[in-house]
Amino acid sequence: MKLLSCYSVLLLLLLLCFHEALSWSTEYTQFSQAENYEGSSDLISLEYHMGPVLASAINLYIIWYGQWNPTHQGTIRDFIDSLSSSSAPYPSVADWWKTVRLYTDQTGSNITGTISLSGEFYDTGYSHGVYLSRLSMQSVIETAVTSRSKPLPLNPRNGLYLVLTSDDVRVEDFCRAVCGFHYFTFPFVVGVTVPYAWVGYSGSQCPGMCAYPFAWPKYSGKPPPSDGIMRAPNGDAGVDGMISVIAHELAEVSSNPLVNAWYAGDDPTAPTEIADLCLGLYGSGGGGGYVGKVYKDAWGNDYNVNGVKGRRFLVQWVWNPVKRRCFGPNAMD
């Protein structure tokens, strides 16, 4: 019994070690001051640390925690479906995912191009309350896979779990330090080790932080851009901003699912992952607070990739290991 308790404590300490490392940061200073590498750079030492990537076809399971707007759910589902679709015109979400697919494991296998929405669980009763810690996300997953009513399968072979919290759920560090994060489950909580990610809906809590660039940080100390705030392509700053955070986390959990694969830096407790390097970049010429060159639709909404059902999305770029720079399919070169 003592051994089990010690093991649990060690695992909890391990989670705390990565408390800030695997997160989409809310700090606006990262958009305006950090070095984002839209141009080719030899300064980045993105290295492979011999761990696995998600090379097998991914079965993605969404856990809708809280009370969700069906329209917002539909937007998110369409984005997930767009990741593997060949039906959307270029540049598409699937074209964006091709950069993520450039990353390989030690056998030379690339990250998969097949991501299927394989199940959804609706935790409308807030099974773990409206205030969640980072660790409690694993308990949310455990509830979803053990529920007596329509449980999700527990899939350690190729399952990926995405916990999405509604606007009335408060999550530890949300809006203060993170907009989303990824990690892997502990067997003593869930029963097996599976990768997962969490993203929160920020529309009413902190749109200026987690729905950037569709909203402006109130306390940034800087005025909004002279050409105005970007317009959300699907009509809601919260969900459109959330889409980019979901993309960010899916790219990183696929390339670094057990925190021992692709990242930059010498400290594994504070890795800089493939989307972290490009935070705030959505098009060519971006940097210094400018998101880069993107498209506008007939209504003046901003986007950089196309999705299924005529959808359009604005998704941040990721680091391209071949070009050695941040890249997206809407790049002008």
From TrEMBL:
Residues 1-23 form the signal peptide. It is found in: Secreted, Extracellular space, Apoplast. Belongs to the EXORDIUM family. Keywords: Apoplast, Secreted, Signal. This is Protein EXORDIUM-like 7. Coiled coil: none annotated. InterPro entries: EXORDIUM-like (IPR006766). Its main location: secreted.
